[in-house]
Amino acid sequence: MNYLYVFAAAFLFSSMEVAIKFTGGAFNPVQLNFIRFLVAGILLYPISRKELSTLTYKLVKKDYLHFAFTGFLCIVVSMTFYTLSVSFLDAHVAGVLFCSNTFFSMLLAHFFTSEKMNRPMLFAVGLSFVGFLVLVNPAHFKGSLLGVVIVLISALSFSFYALVGKILYKDAPFKAPTITSRSFLFGVAELFILIMISRTAPVAGALKSAGLDVFANIPILSGIASDNILILLYISVFVTGLGFASHLFAVETNPVAVSSLVFFVKPVLSPIMAAIFLGDIIYKHEIFGIVLIAAASSLIIYEQHRREQKALAEK
Q1: pLDDT tens for residues 152-182?
Q2: Which keywords fit this entry according to its UniProt record (predicted)?
Q3: Neighbour tally for 258: CB within 10 Å
C-alpha cells in the first residue's frame, strides 16, 4: 500500500505539465496556482475535519504556524516558480528538471535526519543524475536558460518543503488530510495577499518597469471559460488535491529514499505523456536517460527492501 501512494502521486504529477499546456496559456501562472490550490484545499478540508473529529487533540498556535510555513514554501515559492517554468520550457523538459528535487531531498535527509545513504544508494543517486543529464542533453540544449533557473529554484524549495514537513509533523497526531488541506489554505491566503499587492498601481508599475509583467496585476478568476473548465478542474482536483495528498502519505509512511521515488518515476512518465497528448518527440538520448533513471529507481527500491529485511531479522 505504501508504494501505491508513491506511484499514484507519480502518475498524477507526471500529467501536470501536459495539463498546463492544454490550458492554452489562458491563465497567469500565479493565478493558476491560486485557483488549483484553493479548490484542492476546500475539497480536502471536510476530510481534515473528519480526521480531527476522531482525535482528542485540538489544533494550537504552533500547528497554524507550521501550516503557514509549509504552505508558503510549497505554494507561494515552489509551485509558483514551477508553474512559471512551464511557460519557458517544453512540458517534458520542465517535468524532468523539476524532478531534480529528488537529489536535494535525499541529500538534505542524509545531513539533517537519521536516514543516511549507503554506497548503493549514493551510486543510484549518481546514476539517476547521469540519467537526468542525458535526458536534458545540456550540450545541445536549445531551451530557455531562465526557464532552467526558475524550475531548479522550484525543485530546491520543494525538497526543502518535503523535509521541513517531515520534521515539523513527525509527532503530530493528525496526518496527511489535515496537513495538506490546512497548508494549502494558508498558502492560498498568503498568495492572495501577494496578488492583491500586485494589483496596486505603484507595485504593478515597478514590476512592469523591471520586466516582470507576469507578476503585475495578477488576475484571480478571469480566463475561466467553458473550453478550459474541465482541464482546470483536473489540475485542481486530481493533480493538486489527490496528487499532493498521495505524496504526503508517501512521505509519512516511507523513508525519504522511497518517497523520493515519485520524482524518479515522473521523468519516465512525463516524456511519454507529452508524446502521447502533445505530440512531443522523444529522442534516442531521452530514451537512454529514462532507462538509466529506471535502473536507479529499481536499485533504490531493492536497497530499501534489503534494509527493511535486515532490520526485521535483527529484531
Answers
A1: 899 889 888 888 888 888 888 888 788 888 9
A2: Cell membrane, Membrane, Transmembrane, Transmembrane helix
A3: 22
- Give CA–CA dist 199/193, Å, rounded: 10
CB atoms within 10 A of CB 287: 13
Q: Report angle CA 177, 179, 183 to the nearest 5 degrees.
A: 120
Residue 258, pLDDT score = 65
Could you tell me the CA-to-CA distances from 47 to 179, 206, 213, 244 in Å, in that order?
A: 11, 42, 38, 14
d(CA 111, CA 244): 25
Q: What angle do CA 170, 244, 91 make, to 5 degrees?
A: 135
pLDDT confidence bin for 63, thresholds 50/70/90: very high
**pLDDT, tens only, 207-256:** 898 877 888 899 988 888 888 899 999 999 898 888 877 877 777 676 66
What is the torsion angle, in degrees rounded to the nearest 10, for the CA atoms of residue 27, residue 31, residue 33 and residue 37?
-120
Instruction: Domain ranges for the chain, please list them.
Output: 2-115+140-255
Q: How many residues does the chain have?
A: 315
Residues 6+ apart with CB under 8 A from 81: 150, 151, 153, 154, 157
d(CA 300, CA 310): 15
Rounded distance, CA 308 to CA 315, Å?
Answer: 11
Phi-psi region of 279 (alpha: psi -120 to 50; beta: other; left: phi over 0): left
Chain-centre distance for alpha carbon 92: 14
25: left (phi > 0), else alpha (psi -120 to 50), else beta? left
